[in-house]
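$ ./design --mode recover --in tokens.txt
reading tokens...
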């Protein structure tokens, strides 16, 4: 069993409209936009990052807004819901705020004794806020959400699978341990993590497979401290029979990827070097930053990419 995984690092989803995306995650949810860059493989598409003040691993939601993408179809083999941690007693505030800021299907529920508020983002993103006691992570307070309600970072992701057994084995190998099971959902957690410590598995054997599109999660990333720890994880995963990519430089972290037996794409990302490597912390997310291999396209991309509006 591995002991390097510290919890979630980031979650990356698909979108269509960069301004709708920016408005919802930075204005409605009150996250800080910490980076404007482009997709490494398709530089004509933005890659937008939102999180806490520094873009701390365990807080960062990222999006690829493809302008002509179809809406995703929810199903199995994907991250079915991304949940954020908020302070106890704050869900009433959010229940009043979210419908006024483009959220749909806002619904309160409980899971494993925790109060949750589930909702859909304006492009179909399946999200939740979970009241969590003792979360000491500092929130971003730049968008008007009060401190006693502001998002602290991720709480968890829920994987929707037709059969959970093999993916549960992967999580156990990665250092996660079983915590609770009820109502078709099994919870795994990592000890002494970064606050974003939980992965829930929801088994839905009769649900069709998901079709990715706007609102779908593309992959979920797990945090390791540095490249040396990532190399240990990669070697162990490969030895266990997983097809793992080489380590790839993503400018703000190094990433390896592998597909789980249930179909979900996992990434293991380093906490280093972070989002301040090419911008001062006070200026994060204010200028277009390009990967080195795409810097020669800057003039064309500035003309082509839609302006990110701050309204």
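writing sequence...
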């Amino acid at each position: 069993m591995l002991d390097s995984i510290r919890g979630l690092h980031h979650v990356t989803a698909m979108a269509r409209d960069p301004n709708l995306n920016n408005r919802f995650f930075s204005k409605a949810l009150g996250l800080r936009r910490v980076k404007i860059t482009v997709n490494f493989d398709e530089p004509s598409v933005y890659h937008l990052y939102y999180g806490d003040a520094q873009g701390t691993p365990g807080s960062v939601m990222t999006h690829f807004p493809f302008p002509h993408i179809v809406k995703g179809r929810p199903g199995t083999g994907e991250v079915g819901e991304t949940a954020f941690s908020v302070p106890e007693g704050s869900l009433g505030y959010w229940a009043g705020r979210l419908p006024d800021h483009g959220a749909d299907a806002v619904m309160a529920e409980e899971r494993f004794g925790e109060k949750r508020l589930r909702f859909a983002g304006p492009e179909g993103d399946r999200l939740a806020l979970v009241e969590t006691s003792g979360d000491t992570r500092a929130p971003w307070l730049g968008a008007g959400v009060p401190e006693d309600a502001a998002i602290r970072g991720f709480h968890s992701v829920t994987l929707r699978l037709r059969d959970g057994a093999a993916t549960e084995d992967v999580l156990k190998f990665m250092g996660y341990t079983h915590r609770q099971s009820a109502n078709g959902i099994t919870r795994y957690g990592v000890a002494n993590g970064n606050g974003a410590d939980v992965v829930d598995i929801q088994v839905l054997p009769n649900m069709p497979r998901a079709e990715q599109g706007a609102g779908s999660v593309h992959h979920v990333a797990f945090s390791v401290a540095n490249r040396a720890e990532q190399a240990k994880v990669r070697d162990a995963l490969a030895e266990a029979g997983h097809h793992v990519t080489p380590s790839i430089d993503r400018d703000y972290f190094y990433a390896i990827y592998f597909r789980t037996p249930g179909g979900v794409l996992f990434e293991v990302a380093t906490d280093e070097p972070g989002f301040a490597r090419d911008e001062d912390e006070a200026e994060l997310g204010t200028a277009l930053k390009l990967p080195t291999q795409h810097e020669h396209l800057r003039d064309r991309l500035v003309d082509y990419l839609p302006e990110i509006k701050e309204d």
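exit 0
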